[in-house]
Task: inverse folding
């Protein structure tokens, strides 16, 4: 996806007639190609890859939006990345494109055998309805001492990649 900041940065340097090549047709490469093609309509964007959907590594994946912190990246930056990604996917999940894009809301639990040092992760206020599980809920998992319940977005890449590729083509991209 193309965050508002990245999209604005790209448009500021509008490159008339420039040629851009994006390498890789998995979720990262294809998302980047869509971002560039939609943000810079006067640019020629080509996607190069050894394999395309349905034969990419991403096609076998589904992404459920929650995260563990990366130790060497400031939490505020990670929070911004998570918020941008979550908001982008939530907008798709709430749109008419949801079935074709394979992006849906998903509720569930994250359970822990030991109580984690941080019981409320940095993204807890960004997902929907985050809360600690009740003792009664935890009874279902006798080997676990703590849990979190929340609703987030799930992205099924076997649907998401073809949907992105269609957007890429409509924006004038080619492979």
Result:
């Amino acid at each position: 996806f193309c965050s508002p900041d990245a999209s604005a940065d790209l448009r500021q340097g509008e490159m008339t007639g420039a040629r851009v090549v994006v390498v890789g047709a998995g979720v990262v490469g294809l998302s980047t190609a869509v971002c560039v093609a939609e943000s810079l309509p006067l640019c020629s964007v080509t996607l190069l890859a050894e394999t395309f959907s349905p034969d990419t590594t991403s096609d076998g994946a589904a992404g459920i939006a929650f995260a563990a912190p990366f130790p060497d990246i400031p939490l505020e930056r990670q929070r911004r990345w998570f918020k941008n990604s979550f908001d982008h996917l939530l907008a798709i999940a709430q749109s008419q494109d949801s079935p074709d894009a394979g992006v849906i809301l998903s509720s569930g639990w994250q359970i822990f055998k030991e109580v984690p040092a941080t019981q409320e992760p940095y993204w807890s206020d960004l997902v929907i309805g985050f809360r600690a599980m009740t003792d009664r809920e935890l009874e279902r998992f006798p080997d676990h001492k703590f849990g979190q319940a929340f609703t987030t977005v799930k992205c099924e890449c076997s649907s998401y990649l073809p949907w992105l590729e269609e957007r890429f083509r409509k924006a004038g991209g080619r492979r």
Q: What stands out?
A: DSSP finds six helices and six strands in the chain. The two ends are 19 Å apart (CA to CA). The helical segments are 4-12, 27-39, 75-93, 98-101, 135-138, 157-170.
